[in-house]
Amino acid sequence: MRLTLQTDYALRVAIYLAEHPDRLCSISEIARAYGISHNHLMKVAHGLGKAGFVASVRGRNGGLRLARPASEITVGAIVREMEDGFTLVDCASCIISPLCGLRGLLGQATSAFLAVLDACSLADLHNDRTNVLALLTGVSSAQTQPP
């Protein structure tokens, strides 16, 4: 199973927003934190907004935030929304498809993959918020730990 770059970036945006629940975050800020394309993130953020995961506030002091609490958004929901489909092989064009068990096996594997992602919310993804924030802001974990 391989996820698209769009899904990868969507998960990064969602994780970033989950780590900053107390404020709006700009696309530029998120792009800098991850070292990825601002323009690509604009498209990803738009898709997350259309899907109801992200709310945006326009204007000079605007930005993005999660539309719901991080505990209510599963990784599986984001992956399902951002991916076009989960067809791993083209069984429809295969001559042995009517008698082959591969389609069913791959379907079970995909279901299991998504079930694991559905069991994890954005809130479940961070065990040590201080260190995650330090990584996102470029501060070493030694600087964030009290003496």
Structure notes:
This protein is mainly alpha-helical and 147 residues long. It has a domain at 5-84 and 121-139: Orthogonal Bundle (Arc Repressor Mutant, subunit A). Helices cover 50% and strands 5% of the residues. The protein is built from 7 helices and 2 strands; from the N terminus they run H-H-H-E-E-H-H-H-H. The protein has helices at 5-19, 27-34, 38-50, 75-82, 102-118, 129-137, 141-144; strands at residues 54-57, 63-66. A two-stranded antiparallel ribbon has the order 1-2. This is HTH-type transcriptional regulator NsrR. InterPro entries: Tscrpt_reg_Rrf2 (IPR000944), WH-like_DNA-bd_sf (IPR036388), WH_DNA-bd_sf (IPR036390). GO terms for molecular function: DNA binding; DNA-binding transcription factor activity.
Spell out the key features of this protein.
Arc Repressor Mutant, subunit A, DNA-binding transcription factor activity, 5% strand, 147 residues, mainly alpha, DNA-binding, two-stranded antiparallel ribbon, disordered C terminus, HTH-type transcriptional regulator NsrR, DNA binding, elongated
Please describe the topology of this protein.
Elements: H1 5-19, H2 27-34, H3 38-50, E1 54-57, E2 63-66, H4 75-82, H5 102-118, H6 129-137, H7 141-144
Antiparallel strand pairs: 1-2
Outline of this structure?
It is built from 7 helices and 2 strands; from the N terminus they run αααββαααα. By secondary structure, the chain is mainly alpha-helical. The protein has a domain at 5-84 and 121-139: Winged helix-like DNA-binding domain superfamily/Winged helix DNA-binding domain (Arc Repressor Mutant, subunit A).
